[in-house]
Amino acid sequence: PVITAEAADETIECGDYSSDAEEFAAWLENRGGATGDIDACGDVTWSTIPANPALSDGCGETGDVTVTWVLTDECGLTSSTTATFTIEDTTVPEFTMVPENYTAECSDAHPLEMAEAEDICGVIEFTVEADTTFVGCTSNYVVERTFTATDACGNQSSAQQFITIQDTTAPEFAEALPGDLTFDCAADDAAVLTATDNCSDVEVIFTADTVAGDCPNRYTITRMWSVTDDCGNNSSHTQVVTVVDEIAPEFNEALPADVTLDCAADDAAVLTATDNCSDVEVIFTADTVAGDCPN
Fold first, then answer.
1. pLDDT (tens digit, 9 = 90+) per residue, 18-62?
2. What backbone torsions phi and psi does residue 25 show, to the nearest 5 degrees?
3. Half-sphere exposure of 173 (CA within 13 A, CB side)
């Protein structure tokens, strides 16, 4: 018998047809396109080697099989043709959802969503890698998340998500902030302030600058509390304390009044005094103006 048309190889992409199995069955039914004529000995018959062709078990839903069609006449003479049917997968998975890029404060929630993908030919394996780049401080950084989808045949596709974390919030003082004050004689003790921050531990730095006045009990103190977080966000508070001495000393005893005496003056009273700000001493002086006789 004569093979008038050789069987032809056929390669299809996995998932390109509604049913790869139906496409394979049609190729077998059509003998891969092979045809043959009857010969002088009468009718011919077709058979296959193997008798029941089946696709090999490749990756995913792929596979191949080599089939030999044998044309046999009534006298047992044969001719044959061979072809291979292949189902391959060269298509990468396709992402159907990639989490959006976003920017968030370091103290906010940072959702880590998973990407989604589909493949025309089977199961997908996902991997996620995260690469963190710090920008100036530990609370400012960018996370690059790389999603990789790999199908059963090793075809890969990747997508990225960028998450920007930042610290733009200044620390906050925990206590009520002291206002400006004026005191007599001496200043009060400076308040002790603490602070909290949304992303890092912080410490309050206290400084005081004193400007002297015209006496020890007159001066001005400028107090400053300052707190800075790891990323340079700062809060500060200034209080001005003014110390004054506007009250004159007071005599402790009754003050002697003017008097007129015969012949001789009495002894001068001894007076003492107190002051609200300091120790004081009474200075006594007497000035005598002579008359027209000793008495």
1. 688 889 999 999 999 999 987 767 788 999 999 999 999 889 889
2. -60, -40
3. 18
